[in-house]
Design goal:
This protein has 610 residues and is an alpha+beta fold. The chain has four domains: 106 residues, Beta-Lactamase (2-Layer Sandwich); 101 residues, Beta-Lactamase (2-Layer Sandwich), CATH 3.30.450; 109 residues, Helix Hairpins (Orthogonal Bundle); 155 residues, Heat Shock Protein 90, CATH 3.30.565.10. Helix content is 50%, strand content 20%. The chain has a six-stranded antiparallel β-sheet with strand order 8-7-6-11-10-9, with helices on both faces. α10 crosses α11. It is rod-shaped and about 200 Å long.
Length: 610
Amino acid sequence: MSLRQKLLLLFSLTVAAAVAAVAWTVLLRIRKVFEQQDQEKTALLVTQFQREFQHRSTEVASEMDRLAASERLRSLARDLAETGDASPYLTEAQSLAAESQLDFLEILGPDGNIVSSAQWPARFGYPEPALNSAAGPAAFIKRDDLPDGASAVGIFAVRAIQGAPAVKLLGGRRLDRQFLADLPTPAGVEAYLYNAPESTNEVAPAFQPSLLLGVNGEVPNAAQYAGVLASAERSGQPASTLIYLTPRREDSVNATAMPLKSANGQVMAVLVVAASRRAMVEAQRHIRAIAYTVAAAGILITIAISIAIAVRVSRPIEELARAAEEVAHGNWRVRVEARGRDEVAMLARSFNHMTAELTAQQERLIQSERVAAWRELARRLAHELKNPLFPLQITVENLVRSRSLSDAEFDEVFRESTQTLGMELANLKTIIGRFSDFSRMPKPQLERIDSQAVLVRVMKLYAQPQPGPTEAAGEPKIEYKFDLNVELDNARLLIDADPEMLHRALSNLVLNAMDAMPDGGTLTLSAKALADRVEIRVADSGQGMTPEECARLFTPYYTTKQHGTGLGLAIVQSVVSDHNATIAVESQPGGGTAFVLLFPRAADEASQVS
């Protein structure tokens, strides 16, 4: 991944993370604010409900006081006390309830039985259990049965008729839709009333959606409130929960159920306050939309900024990286353009200054190396030429002195001197030839050859028969081994090389190996195929070399022999390098030496192996 891509990714992630963090914080804050508002609205509605309940209770109690003090009911009470006949008054409660605008009204005789009932006339003569649970003059909640088998919950009060305390009145008004309509509900809040059915045999009755009423009648999706209603009924305490009326989040509500209890603590009804979450959900969606828009705009701005930074920062850095690669490959004259006065421009100017210094140092180093090389060449040449020149000088002086001798003696000295001159001149020719060859290495003429065939040719050249009993006993006995990992008749190890130059390099290695074994030993030539290379190995069992000697082995004019120019292995390394190959030495004192050559395998051969 490039610097430009990393900057783009970093900036994009930073913008996205910042926008996400802000959006998440705002959403969380909005949720808390709306929840707090819902709680405040619920508390306000409950307070309004309590005020309305108290107001209704006061109205019911006042109306019941008025009726109990009326002359009509006082006369009715005296007649009941004197005659004990209730039949003339069976419909009296209905007319009194209509006049007093009461939903419930019953006249109860001295025995506690119903004399007249406005809501259920047929109940005359039945006892009224509410008289046992009535808490003095205060109003209370009571469930009352109706003729159709249903029941209703209302606010009731019990009053004794003045002048005849044994006769009592029980009246009240319903808790119904009209009661909810009179409540001042805040916007987004709905109030529902659930008339809890009476439990039988201590078994909680099943939830009945039709008993949950709102201002407009039955509540849609009433079944969703079953859980919170059941919790309030069981515990007798307020219960709150989040209810999803539909799969959509905007149709969810925060519902709070407030149980309404009778004087004996039995839950008669449940007030449900449902605060809609639609405004909160829409606000959250709006915040998310803004966040997405800001994030998209931020990413676009980030892309523009990254492009600007790429032009100003990353592109010059990429140019510096490419220039550094060229310097690593040897091109020390590369330069980069320095624009501006910032840190990147300073870095570019420093790089240019560094390459200029490297170029100057390289030129000075090359000149120094050339001078040193010529001095070393002159020293080595003088040293090599000095050895044969001294015998030549002695021989010439002997010839001069022998001129005064007899002819026979002169002829003998002349023959010996000419032989010596010939040998030393041949030695001079050899020395000059080696220096000439090293200075004029020809360019290899590459052709497809079999490396094994070259090894066989070299082996045949040097693997002469060992001396027998009749041969000279002073010659060292060298055993030659040839090790291949494939059969010569079935496969070949093909490489692209100059056969003559390769033969010459291998010959030099074989001669070095033979010189390393003056007392005899084993010389091994081997070749094997690697993945994309051909390995040629020339090994001897001589005395080996130290690591320091191995490190300097391919240095021109360095030699471990008493007589040698030190150019043989340098020539071998030059030949190997010209073939895009490598040469390495493996040796340790007393363990022999092995030269390992790795040549690139021919393209078709390498593909077959892979």
